[in-house]
Amino acid sequence: MCYNAGMSLLSAQWQGFGWCLLLYTLIFLFVHLVSVAAVGYRTLFKKPPPEKAEPPKPPEKKPETVYYLVERKKKRASKTYSEPKEISFR
Q: What is the pTM of this model?
């Protein structure tokens, strides 16, 4: 009977990969389970904040008026530009 050592080696490699994948998955789940359990344990002894009545609403302020600057379109007579105008708002 002829024994093929190559197939056996490949099978062992896949078995090793499978065990590593299984171990990684188990450790991943364990670490996350412990972290979630720690968060749950910390919140187990916390008292909820006392319920408060709604705070009084501040008086409503009158909205400020909005000013729109509208300028008619003008045909530009020349290709030269004048100095920019300074616009000051309050």
A: 0.43
